[in-house]
Amino acid sequence: EKGGYDYFMLKEIAEQPKAVADTLLGRIDLAGNLCLDEVRIPASVLREVTKVVIVACGTAYHAGMIAKYAIEHWTRIPCETELASEFRYRDPILDQRTLVIAISQSGETMDTLMALRHAREQGAKVLAICNTNGSTIPRESDAVLYTHAGPEVAVASTKAFLTQLVACYLVALYLGQVRGTKWGDEILSVIRELSEIATQVDEVLETMEPVRELARTLADKNTVLFLGRHVGFPVALEGALKLKELAYMHAEGFAAGELKHGPIALIEQDVPVVVVVPSPRGRSVLHDKIVSNIQEIRARGARTIVIAERGDAAVAPYADHLIEIPVTPTLLQPLVATVPLQVFACELATARGNEVDQPRNLAKSVTVE
Ligand code: M6R
C-alpha cells in the first residue's frame, strides 16, 4: 500500500503534483469564474465581510499564514491568522461580518474545532478547508471547501499542506470575485499560473538527489535554522517544523528581517541555515534584502543552504548549497519552495534512524486540547 516507496511520507510527497491538480479540478469555468459549489455562504454575506480570521494548528497554520498574504493582497479585506489554541482563549473580537476560515487536514483537531465553535457562538460565519469528507470540522461549519489530497497517512503533513494552499488561493480569489476586487481575466491568469504548479512540483521532485545527499551530511548537526521573508517566512517555519518532528533536531524558522533583532547571535561556524529567497522579479526589494541577510550570516561562518528561483544569479555566489526552484509568481512560491524542505527533513530522519511515518510522541490527528 506504500506503492513501492519505503515510507508513506515519500509516497505522499510524490503524490503532490496530482493532489494539487485534483484540488483545482472543476473549480473554475472557461470565463474565469470560480464555482466553489461546496461553499454555501451566500455571496451577499461574503460581500459584507469586514474581517477574515484564519484558525489552524501546526502545518495547517502555516498554510493559513501564507493565505493571509494572498487574501489581503487580492481582496483588501483585513486578515489575521492565529493558532487555534491561542485564539479560543483570548476573547477574540468577532461578529456576523467576520469570516473565520478553519484549516484542517483531518477535520478532527480539537483546538481548531473549539476555535470554530467559539467563532460561531459569536455569530461569525465559518468556512472549513478540510481534507476529510464528513469529518467534524466541516460538519460544524457553515461551508466547506475540500482539498483533494486523498488520504494522508504519514504523521508529517506534506500533500495536505500543498492542497491547503491551493484551497486558500481559491478562497481568496473567490472572495475577490464576489466583492469585485478581482475580475474574470485576472482570476484566469492566477488560475493559469496555479495550473502550472503541478508540473513545476514534478520538476522539483526530479531534482532532489542533491538535497538528499546534503541532508545525509548534516545528520550529526544539533541545530538547523530557517529564514524567509514575506510568504517565505511561513515556508521557513514549515521547514523547521518538519525537521523537528521527523529528525528530532532543534530547528527554528525566523523572519529574515528579524535576524538583527536577536537570532543573528545564534550564527556560529558551520551552523546550517536554510534561506528561502523571494523571486528577484516582482518585489525585488525583498530579494535584495535577503541577499544581504545571506551575506551577513555567511560572513559569520554559517553554512548557507539557499532555495532560490532558477537563474537567480545575484544570490548564487553566497550559497554554499544552492537548491533551485521553478519561476513562479511571488504569492505562489510556497507551493514549490516547501517541497525541498519536506525531502530534506525526511532524508535527515532516515539518516538518523528515525521512524519516518510515525515520529515519536506524535499522533496524526490531535483530538485532545
Ligand atoms: O489535521 P490538522 O490539519 O488539523 O492537523 C494540524 C496539525 O496537528 C498538523 O498539521 C501537524 O502539525 C502535522 N504533524 C505537521 O506535519
UniProtKB/TrEMBL annotation:
Reactions listed under catalytic activity: D-fructose 6-phosphate + L-glutamine = D-glucosamine 6-phosphate + L-glutamate
- Oligomeric and partner information: Homodimer.
UniProt domain SIS: residue ranges: 42-181, 214-359
Q: Which organism is it from?
A: Streptomyces demainii
Q: Which residues form a coiled coil?
A: none
Where located?
Cytoplasm
Intact protein stretch covered? 247 to 615 of 615
Lineage summary: Bacteria, Bacillati, Actinomycetota, Actinomycetes, Kitasatosporales
Q: Does the keyword Transferase apply?
A: yes
EC main class here is transferase
Q: Which GO terms describe its molecular function?
A: glutamine-fructose-6-phosphate transaminase (isomerizing) activity
Q: EC number(s) in its UniProt entry? A: 2.6.1.16
**Can you tell me which residues form the catalytic site?**
364
Q: Mainly resides where?
A: cytoplasm
What protein name is recorded for this chain? Glutamine--fructose-6-phosphate aminotransferase [isomerizing]
- Enumerate the UniProt keywords alphabetically: Aminotransferase, Cytoplasm, Glutamine amidotransferase, Repeat, Transferase
Q: Is Electron transport set as a keyword in this record?
A: no
Q: What does this protein do?
A: Catalyzes the first step in hexosamine metabolism, converting fructose-6P into glucosamine-6P using glutamine as a nitrogen source.
